[in-house]
Write a structure and sequence with these properties.
The chain is mainly beta. Helix content is 12%, strand content 34%.
Amino acid sequence: MSDIIFYPVALIAALAIVAAAALPGRDRLACSSVSGAGTDYRTIQVSGDDLCRFEASGEAEIELVRSGEQITHLTITASSGSLGDRPDRNPHFRLAADLERVFAGHEVRVTIEARPSLDAGASAFEANYSAGFEGNSGWSLFELRADYAPYSFTWDVPQRTAEEIAVDYLAIRPVIPEKTRSVDVRSVKFELLERTQVAPEAIPQPIPGIAPETPEDSQPETTQTDP
């Protein structure tokens, strides 16, 4: 084969291999942080193949369990003493910037559908919503039933200005009294509830050179009429 034919063919073959590797498949799902793109942000459901967005952290192990080509649930396994207290150092979903902006200043309900794993199943699990340096919800403890059931908690997500950058996480971990424990998670739902805080830029600020209004100044005007 002449060089004129060989090199173009080799280049095309190499590009085809790279393109195939970039395409999502059974072991190459397009996984990243959880986003609300294409929704009205009132309810964000993470289930099925979207569970691949869950990240192992610390010394935990994550298994994506499939039925055929579809992910049915994930299994979180960890051993006693292997996980710290920080949510980002535990198994977690990372929330994308669009969800951070929408959830900021609102009450958010998180519902996790979980059960004990068949092997070394935990009797309880914990969940924590973290807004990075802005704080976190603390670890909510849930006693597991024998089969899948929904477990919910709510948190007032701190308000941020447009310039503030945070990294929001939802961490989930089995309670591990000894040895190793596992918990299965089938779905996670985020629900946007009422606004609880006002953005700092929305609070009226004093205008330079003009004295701030006092409560007396802000009283409504009244007009007295003769009887």
